[in-house]
Amino acid sequence: MKDRGVFETSERDFDKQVIEQSKTAPVLVDFWAPWCGPCRILGPILEEAVEERQGEVRLAKVNSDENPNLAARYGIQSIPTVLAFINGDPVNGFMGALPKEAIRQFIEELIPKETDKLARRAGELELKQRWDEALQCYREALQSDPNHPASLIGRLGILIRLERWAEAEEAYQRMPGTVQMDDEVQRLKTRLDLGRALSVGPSIPDLQKKLQAEPADLEARDQLAALYAAKRQYREALEEWLTIVKRDRRFKDDGARKRMLQIFELIDPRSPLAEEYREKLARAIYR
Questions:
Q1: Which one is catalytic: 27, 29, 39, 158?
Q2: Euclidean distance between CA atoms 95 and 85, whole angstroms
Q3: The pTM is what?
Q4: What is the block-wise mean pLDDT of the chain (287 residues), using blocks of 10 residues?
Q5: What are phi and psi of 63, to 5 degrees?
Q6: Residue 12 pairs with which residues in a beta bridge?
Q7: CA-wise closest residue to 53 among 26, 75, 13
Q8: pLDDT at residue number 54
Q9: Which member of 18, 27, 36, 49 is catalytic?
């Protein structure tokens, strides 16, 4: 077999040859068998299309007869079946012998665009906390594709992290509606809503002092909780909102409870902190 991005793999080395390699470039997996007529038609067309991309994508050949557990692992019910792996996961696929142009188009959609590369680079910079450089990468990507989802979301996240609230609000408002509905964007929007409290009104020390003098001031307590949440001091925020729930469920139309539920989503509903305060909230409501 030509060694131009096309190789055979098996159950023994699939994870190393496919899963790991797909973290640097897309890998197609062709599930076939020697007795399969359509497989013999598809194979050469698929190999030629992959070789044309000169390393941008690779092709792994899996003999389903010899690797039944691997075929079962991915629910292969008929052959030929082709799955595309990116970052270790199957992201797309097709069954049957497609014509060459259709295969070329299938591969084209898998190849990372320049905007994808910039967004990936920005993500790497974020891990190193190089916020300004990451933000510049996202902006460059958006110059090429103003609606690039990963870059829109990444830019918003950095602006919120840097507490650049006015810019973050503008970035959010300019997002297409479909991107605004993304789960991550919804979490960022919660942070943005809370963060606005940092730019106006009393400070945390001022509110703490006020509550020492007037513990029943629920408005001040609500403001303090929002400031804690904006600073990612989630335990403190949850405790203040829980106090409001205990004292007056009707305050701001049950707003404290609603804020607590938002924080649970923000920090992961299954996290120990969320579980702890979900139980406390339930006891406060149903006592």
A1: 39
A2: 15
A3: 0.63
A4: 76 93 92 94 94 91 94 92 93 92 92 88 93 95 93 95 91 94 91 79 91 95 92 94 95 94 91 95 89
A5: -75, 110
A6: none
A7: 26
A8: 86
A9: 36
The residue whose two tokens read 């804020």 is 259
pLDDT of 1 = 42
Q: Annotated catalytic, 137?
A: no
**How many H-runs (helices) and E-runs (strands) does the chain carry?**
15, 5
Which two structure tokens, joined as six digits, stand for 23? 């973290």
Residue 166 CB contacts under 8 Å (≥ 6 apart), including other chains: none
Give the three-state DSSP class for 262. Answer: helix
Q: Where are the alpha helices (DSSP H) in 58-99?
A: 68-73
Q: What does the alpha-carbon distance between residue 11 and residue 132 come to, in Å, rounded to a whole number?
A: 44
User: What Rg, from alpha-carbon coordinates, does the chain have?
Assistant: 26
Strands 27-32 and 89-95: unpaired
